Amino acid sequence: MVKYVKTALSLVIALFPALFFSQEIKQMTANEVAELAVKNHQQLKVSAQNIDIAKQNTNVTKLQKLPTITASTSQFYLGDAVAIDKDFSNSTNVPMPHYGSSYAVQATQLIFKGGLVNKSIELAGLREQLSELDLEKNKQDVKFLVISNYLDVYKILNQQEVFQNNKRLAQERLKNIQKFYQQGMVTRNEVIRGELAIKNLDQGILTLVNNKKILNYNLSIALGLPTDTEILPIESLENKEAGIGMEYYVNLAHDSNPAMKSAKTNRDVADKNIEIIKTDKMPTVAGFGGYTLQRPITTRNPVLDMYSGGWQTGVSLSYNIDNLYKTKERVKLGELQKTQANDAITLTQQNIDMAVNAAYVKYQESIQQADILNDAKKLAEENYNITEAKYLNQLAVQAEMIDAQNQKLQSELDYANAEINVLYQYYNLLKSTGTL
């Protein structure tokens, strides 16, 4: 009975980590990673709040269309008046009601100011567009960041597979060496070299495992997933749209890149700012109305301790004469800002063209590099097989075998990295166009 209890306890202990510390494995493509980042990345949540702020600012600006209404009251102590002759020879004390109060309501409505209110609302709308474009740019940056981390995980998985395959080959070779050693065909140092080769592979595998843990943790946070989630990339490694041509991507960038759209919107902001400045040349026409109630009545003698009420309504016309010479300089400033905005569009387009050109050339290069490294991998594998056959027949020494293995390992790692680099350069090309 005790034996069965011990067996059951050992099974529970063995299964405990799997039951309570199991890691969720999530298979994802690059697009799925990017979409999840857009939904959950904290940076984008902060950027999205700028849009809400800009929209609320537009709503605040629209309030200028509503009338301005003020209500006021005052309570005061009124002292006695003193009447003095014009030669200051005599004075007379005039008793006054000591308690005084006044109540007033005044409303003002802007009728005309050269379209100032509507232009201010339009300017606020342009600033909304800029905040939305800033969010779009941040989305592109976040997508590329998480996809880069995703591809790094993919690269590490491929490298791990390469290391594991080479470790199995090294272990098989070590078995053969040990047989040779037992037969007295090789010395002990040959066995040690084989064991050291495996230890070097184990060290590489350990580094890769820890790097993958770090990337998985960071990527999980960026995607809003539990931090113990293991991301398993399943993106196809096939070339993506390799033959469209650079002109296609350049035109796409001119139409879609958020930086280009922001530059054009900034020019519209400069235009609208000039229109707003020019409204200062216009007079201000406003309607007004109000009612006033005041106590006591001090406009007659004797003073009456009564309320005096009255209302008024009308239209006011005002014009700041100094704007005749001040506005001219402000318009000149606005024109300079518009010229700067136009130059910024040209600069932005040049930067985008250079970025797209570099990204496209690097994408084509990555495809060609992958083909070259694939051929190199095949040659290194062939060299390894030949050297191994020679070594098993005692026609090559251990140093040649290790050299052939290192060449094989390096060529396989280079090709695995090159495959991932093709994907990286493709997504970098999409980012340069603003369509990632």
What report would you give on this structure?
The protein is α+β, with helices and mostly antiparallel strands. It has helices at 2-20, 30-40, 42-62, 116-182, 188-223, 246-256, 258-278, 323-392, 398-433; strands at 25-28, 68-77, 81-84, 91-94, 99-112, 230-233, 284-295, 308-318. The strands form three sheets. The protein has a four-stranded antiparallel β-sheet with strand order 2-5-7-8, with no helix packed on it. A two-stranded parallel sheet has the order 1-6. Strands 3-4 form a two-stranded antiparallel ribbon. Strand 3 (81-84) and strand 4 form a beta hairpin. Helix 4 packs antiparallel against helix 5. The longest helix is centred in the last third of the chain and has 70 residues, at 323-392. Mean pLDDT is 87; it is low at 1-21.
